[in-house]
Specification:
The structure is a homodimer of 462-residue chains.
Chain A lengths: L4 H9 L1 H12 L11 H17 L3 E5 L6 E6 L8 E7 L19 E3 L2 E3 L3 H22 L5 E7 L9 H7 L1 H4 L3 E4 L11 E6 L1 E10 L5 E2 L10 H9 L23 H8 L5 H8 L12 H6 L5 E8 L8 E2 L2 E10 L5 H15 L5 E10 L2 E2 L5 H14 L4 E5 L5 H9 L3 E3 L15 E3 H19 L6
Parallel strand pairs in A: 3-6, 3-7, 7-17, 8-16
Antiparallel strand pairs in A: 1-2, 2-6, 4-5, 5-18, 8-15, 9-13, 9-14, 10-12, 11-13
Chain lengths: 462, 462
């Protein structure tokens, strides 16, 4: 069923205004990881609530111990209609390193059909297209075929520390028949995609302390353990020569993908050369015996996210550093548990740490991996809506990133989760020059507007 | 022979003024490694030249491709008198990390008999006491028993890139019977020390480049080589399990110390527990089979001076870094050659670097190691002058740090070099809270004033 003509026309007529509103949203530097942006996250939350009120939703900005949660509700479709929880996040990653941005991260700029800005695709653009799909229904028909709760949080990029508790305590209010989330990417331009798996996450910081202060590397070097060297030696034990994670017990709970699931991945139109060119590395590489997509979707990792020790400025400083720090995160696959993995990493690091330094390991945050079989009316409706908006059947894909709350929603609310995203490969989420395709923003809005009609239509068995 | 009474009286009477002048010198942030301090190094050079003119020297501030060289000359002692070249440096290490200083690095502050400031001991304090020793002679007697050339450079902390060339081209003007340098430390409080060896240096920067930009560690992690992990794996190959440097060929040219020299080291009043307490590390550690002093004085090292990759700020950022950087320096002992060692490190790193990243190695600077047998009238005079000033016979010590120009002076000028320093263990050279003992500044000035008289005295064979 194509998108209803009045919805289509409304979205076309209001295209410029909708873009302007999105740009306003993107200009707010709502960086959740940085305390200096605390006022900006509040501003983004209030701005979003105001826009939802504009289109007819009842809203609430709920304070948390961290950044506020925004709720928008419209429940006039009646008891017979399904209730959908739309989840997204209004916070963004830090924009650093700023010098690598071609246009300022918080001044959205369109180049070659792409909206460049921090948060353009992750997740402000994708969250906002949901608000606009609701607006199309409410402004043209005065009603919606579904009951809706929008839940937008401001702490996704720092691991959603307050969300699970909020969902638990508000489980009744958030009760629903389906959860819909757009915070992911399509497999390729023009190819709508439904996500069937997410990796989980365990994020740790390792601090290695040697001497009390930085020492002269000549006057002390050789007689005092160098914490930077010690840290490097610890990190070097994280993988074996086949680039498998060598932390004992790491793979114990990994559920292998079925031959069918691996075959489905291999059938996707994946261009490894193009992927490598986008990445820009001399060559791709990873765990032996796995293809690139399998490495990203089906295999766990142990990555260094940051390193800092000693003198890192211009020129040469002959310092024997007092301390060295690494940020380390493991991406997890079913049925690895984030807390178990943190325990394994901690035990391993403590076992391999050399004498002469003090090693401290802090778990910063974590989230469970997720997999779904994509059976049932929610997924059928999504397939039809995406086919209508993009003129192509959606493919089933995996995702290497983590949306920890997905597992929480399933567990607490008992509702199936639909992950349908409109990002694209190479979109630089979490990197300089993040962008979202303008075309995907427009078609994504239409797909979501169509989805609500599809969910309300009783289908004859065919 | 005790210090001549008129010199002693002059230094006592002028003590407060001399301190004030030193403090003026220390207030100039002449950080040679940082381009933003370019005006400060010029200011320090001109200030020093002006002070030498005040005491009767002819001065010149010689521009170089980097920071200027200051020359001060007094040649009225006649052809029969020895000519001494006094070398020191007016540049200082960067003061970072600033937050660890208990008083501002460029506002000298006296606490518990110590002058705290960046450069207090390395090397402004030690250079300036030479100027004041010359002043004592010239102001009380109107003459000196020696001809003097003071050579103060502004690039010691960045590897003296322009000094060797200057010494070569000015070899005739700098021609001398002895070189005297105070840029080192005494073995213990009250124990004057003459240095018999210095380690050399090869300082390199390793840059590992993976992807073109930082990537999302979820969406790409596992399929793209992580440059931080690659760098850690490279660094982990630098040492074996006995903490010997494992770079092939590294020890090939190491000249072993004689059993006598090792015995002399073992006889020194070294308190390992106190040293460890000063260092503040959980325990000391280094190459198997070597004592702490041997590790620092007689053995080469390969140290990490700095590490930087990815996200190092507050909180968690799930980034797969595009690049990782390490600053690496090897301290060398005779007869290791800095260029040879740079070549060995480069070859080793290229051999162990994994595919999937591009590794670049740049040599930042280097200097030769040095050892002397300390025989001859220069060293005899020094022994007598130090005994007079400190009331104790000097000990012969090694030094783990590097003063690359020492070897250049010997080679180019053909003159013996006397290294007599007045720093103390724990003085925090190159670290926050650098200090110089006030007592050593005062006694050091007297020892050097006495040295010029001792060098001029013809000795009867005893």
């Amino acid at each position: 069923m194509p998108l209803a003509p009045e919805l289509d026309r409304f979205l076309a007529d209001n295209d410029a205004r909708i873009h302007d509103e999105l740009f306003e949203f993107l200009r707010i530097p709502s960086v959740s990881a940085r305390s200096e942006h605390r006022q900006d996250t509040v501003r983004a939350a209030e701005w979003l609530a105001a826009r939802m009120r504009d289109v007819g939703l009842t809203t609430e900005v709920v304070p948390t111990d961290g950044h506020p949660i925004v709720i928008g509700e419209w429940r006039k479709a009646g008891d017979g209609a399904p209730t959908v929880l739309i989840y997204g996040h209004y916070d963004v990653q830090p924009a650093e390193p700023l010098e690598l941005w071609e246009s300022p991260p918080f001044e959205p700029t369109v180049r070659h059909g792409r909206i460049y800005a921090r948060g353009a695709v992750d997740d402000k653009g994708q969250l906002y297209l949901h608000v606009k799909a609701l607006e199309a229904h409410l402004r043209t028909r005065g009603t919606l075929p579904i009951n809706v709760v929008v839940l937008a949080e401001g702490e996704e990029e720092i691991g959603s520390p307050n969300l699970a508790n909020f969902v638990e305590t508000q489980a009744k209010r958030l009760g629903c028949d389906a959860v819909v989330i757009s915070d992911s990417s399509m497999f390729a331009p023009g190819l709508p995609s439904i996500l069937s798996s997410l990796r989980g996450l365990t994020y740790l910081q390792i601090d290695v302390q040697g001497a009390a202060v930085d020492l002269h590397s000549g006057s002390y070097g050789g007689a005092v353990i160098n914490p930077a060297t010690a840290l490097a030696r610890i990190i070097a034990t994280f993988h074996d020569e086949h680039l498998r994670v060598a932390i004992p017990g790491f793979y114990d709970k990994v559920r292998e993908w079925t031959p069918d699931a691996r075959k489905r991945i291999q059938a996707l139109p994946f261009d490894e050369g193009k992927f490598r060119d986008e990445v820009g590395a001399p060559s791709l590489g990873g765990e032996d015996g796995q293809s690139t997509l399998e490495r990203i979707w089906t295999r766990p990792t142990c990555e260094i996210n940051g390193l800092l020790s000693g003198y890192t400025g211009e020129g040469a400083k002959t310092v024997l550093p007092a301390a060295a720090m690494a940020k380390v995160s493991c991406r997890l696959v079913p049925d690895q548990d984030p807390d178990d993995i943190a325990t394994l990493v901690r035990a391993h690091v403590e076992r391999v740490a050399p004498p002469g330094v003090t090693v401290t390991i802090r778990a910063l945050h974590g989230g469970r991996p997720w997999r779904a079989d994509l059976q049932g009316p929610l997924y059928d409706a999504a397939r039809r809506a995406l086919t209508a908006a993009f003129g192509k059947e959606p493919v089933i894909v995996g995702e290497g990133g983590s949306i920890p709350v997905v597992g929480d929603f399933e567990r607490i609310l008992g509702a199936p989760v639909l992950l349908v995203g409109f990002g694209l490969p190479g979109e630089n989420a979490h990197a300089p020059n993040e962008w979202m395709s303008e075309e995907n923003f427009v078609k994504g809005t239409r797909a979501i507007a169509a989805l609500w009609d599809e969910m309300a239509v009783p289908r004859n068995p065919s």
